[in-house]
Design goal:
Radius of gyration: 22 Å
Bound molecules: glutamine
Largest sheet: 11 strands, mixed
CATH topology of one domain: Amidase signature (AS) enzymes
Number of helices: 16
Length: 477
């Protein structure tokens, strides 16, 4: 077997036994990226020299007996993570030449654990989208079928794991961006609880729902990475001081007697019947493993889409305000006041006009509108109220059940250009948005194929119950 095809667990064992070195493992990943990235466009920046140097250091650490499970393990990070000394573009023209001056907390934690950063992956610009077609640097292709999208927005990260470019990758999830591409590419994607891992150093999209998380080949690998990246961070005051359990031990438990809820609202008209069948087979399998399957109802989750598409553009319009062309310039700095050629206003217009793609502009306009005086109460405030109802509804459901299972997406990966209408694209996230609005942990795990394309099912848990969702997902895989 090629070294780049190993799981984290297998590679860790091989490294410990001295069967191969981290340098060899890293070289195998770099070779695969060289071989296939021109076709897939999953990776935007490769850090070959730095990666090989980090791998050399990891090999010494392994020999000295101080290795962690991630020491010497090569990974890729979505290009909205800041990585010291390396380009961080968020797949936007406006950040095309931006070199990050420091590491995101999650990157720092991985560095301390000895993981090897191979480079940065493609995404929808600023993580707005579900296909990577919004990237300013061209779309990523799905390794299972090059005519289809990999999902998004962490499409590069999911495709890279599916194509064995790396042993794991980091994505970010605001409304589904880890789970959605994981489902489309046939890999595991974990969105942890909001506040479980630090957002510091990740280009902000929707600050009230953004979370970092792993994309992996197995659930156990997700447990290994999540354990390391979790924890409170003084640079992100929304992170919680809650014990990070031993997820690996937790996922080995059986699921006998667990109550798993199936919300009928998530098995809806218009979804691909074959996809629905695969998810129902997974539910049947969990029943055979001793879980009790309970029909539940989450009636307000049908409003998750409109609520999300008020709250997200509102936060996006505010978060993208910092890209004014001065701190992150595209065109030379301005001369004096006024509104004409060469003025400050002119500079804003030129930079933002040229620097942002169509979807970013659409969200800035929608968000600015929803937040403006006179409309704030009707849109933003109203959306926040409905969001609270959605949160309460999940809380009530979790008094009855231990976890909830749903499809991750309504269909298999679509073909390029098929979802040109933005509203159609927004519908892609119909099943992943509500756990994001409620800040709950959720995982997508492969549960079969339809027309040779992967299908994912989603397990949602109580706050900070990542172990529970991974335990159930592990049984399905
Ligand atoms: N597809 C959703 C959106 O475009 C979710 C994106 C994300 O989770 N970053 O907003």
């Amino acid at each position: 077997m090629n070294l780049n095809c190993l799981t984290i667990k297998q590679a860790h064992e091989g490294l410990q036994k001295g069967e191969f070195t981290s340098v060899e493992l890293t070289e195998a990943c770099l070779a695969e990226i060289k071989k296939r990235n021109s076709e897939l466009n999953a990776v935007l920046t490769v850090c070959e020299e730095e990666a090989l140097a980090e791998a050399g250091i990891a090999d010494k650490r392994i020999k000295s007996g101080t290795a962690t499970e991630l020491t010497g393990i090569p990974y890729l990070a979505k290009d909205n993570y800041l990585t010291r000394g390396v380009r961080a573009t968020a797949a936007s023209k406006i950040l095309e030449n931006y070199i990050a001056p420091f590491d995101a907390t999650v990157i720092k934690k991985l560095r301390e654990a000895g993981a090897v950063l191979l480079g940065k992956t493609n995404l929808d610009e600023f993580a707005h989208g579900s296909s990577t077609e919004n990237s300013a640097f061209g779309p990523t292709k799905n390794p299972n079928d090059l005519t289809r999208v990999p999902g998004g927005s962490s499409g590069g990260s999911a495709a890279a794991v599916a194509a064995n470019f790396c042993l794991f990758s980091l994505g970010s999830d605001t409304g589904g961006s880890i789970r959605h591409p994981a489902a489309f590419c046939g890999v595991v994607g974990l969105k942890p609880t909001y506040g479980r891992a630090s957002r510091f150093g990740i280009v902000a999209m929707t600050s009230s729902t953004d979370v970092p998380g792993p994309i992996t080949k197995t659930v156990e690998d997700a447990a290994i990475v999540q354990k390391i990246i979790s924890g409170q961070d003084q640079n992100d005051f929304t992170t919680a001081d809650i014990l990070v359990p031993d997820y690996q031990a937790e996922i080995k438990d059986n699921i006998k007697g667990l109550k798993i809820g199936v919300p009928h609202e998530f098995f809806r008209e218009g979804m691909n019947k074959e996809v629905e069948k695969k998810v129902k087979e997974a539910i049947e399998f969990l029943k055979k493993q001793g879980a009790e399957i309970v029909d539940i109802s989450l009636p307000h989750t049908k409003y998750a889409l409109p609520v999300y598409y008020i709250i997200t553009p509102s936060e996006v319009s505010s978060n993208l305000g910092r890209f004014d062309g001065i701190r992150y310039p595209l065109t030379p700095n301005p001369s004096p006041a006024g509104a004409g050629e060469g003025s400050l206003i002119d500079l804003y217009k030129k930079n933002r006009g040229k620097g942002f793609g169509a979807e970013a502009k659409r969200r800035i306009m929608l968000g600015t509108y929803a937040l403006s005086a006179g409309y704030y109460d009707a849109y933003y405030l109203q959306a926040q109220k409905v969001r609270t109802i959605i949160i309460d509804e999940f809380e009530a459901a979790f008094k009855e059940v231990d976890a909830i299972i749903t499809p991750t997406t309504p269909d298999i990966a679509f073909k390029f250009g098929e979802n040109k209408d933005p509203l159609k694209m927004y519908l892609e996230d119909i099943f992943t948005l509500s756990p994001s609005l409620a800040g709950l942990p959720a995982i997508s795990v492969p549960c079969g194929t339809v027309d040779k394309m992967p299908v994912g099912c989603q397990i949602i848990g109580r706050k900070f119950a990542e172990g529970m969702v991974m335990k159930i997902a592990d049984k399905i895989l």
